[in-house]
Design brief:
By secondary structure, the chain is mostly helical. It is built from 5 helices and 3 strands; from the N terminus they run αααββαβα. Strand 1 and strand 2 form a beta hairpin.
């Protein structure tokens, strides 16, 4: 449902405005009812706690996978919102490693934007997240094989 809200400190929100405040979606009664119901469900089912807990377990698994490959992969973000990127190296292969990693993820059925965080959803099951970890593992294995020489160094 489309909904807009303006929030802020009272002295700013209540200050006289030139021309008033208009909004296309602000105050729509159906959207407000949907928002209130969504908040009710989120509180009743502890949605945010659930997402953080799932995300913590997921990120621990991803950290372990990343640590097993010497490809310069890095994990950043917080439990419900994470990002995998690649450190620069002398051969300047980080873009190629990133592109190959995300291409391999797509080939395994997972689309993560290579320039943006990915998100844990309340409806993601542990099985969904484990399949994602497996796809990350396989994709990093591909990058490792492609970009490292026989001595385990990045190719340049």
């Amino acid at each position: 449902m489309p909904l807009a809200a303006v929030t802020g400190r009272a002295e700013i929100v209540d200050a006289p405005r030139l021309g008033g405040l208009g909004s296309t979606f602000g105050g729509n009664p159906v959207a407000c009812a949907a928002a209130l119901k969504s908040i009710e469900i989120m509180e009743r089912e502890n949605v945010l706690d659930n997402i953080w807990q799932k995300g913590d377990r997921f990120l621990n698994k991803v950290r372990n996978v990343i640590a097993s490959y010497n490809v310069g992969a890095e994990l950043s973000g917080v439990a419900p919102m994470f990002f995998i990127t690649f450190r620069k190296d002398e051969g300047n292969t980080q873009r190629g490693r990133r592109d190959d990693f995300y291409t391999q993820m797509i080939r395994r059925g997972f689309f993560f934007a290579p320039h943006h965080h990915a998100y844990i959803n309340y409806r993601h099951s542990e099985e969904d997240l484990d399949k994602t970890v497996q796809a990350i593992d396989e994709s990093l294995a591909y990058v490792s094989e492609k970009y490292q020489d026989s001595m385990g160094r990045f190719t340049t």
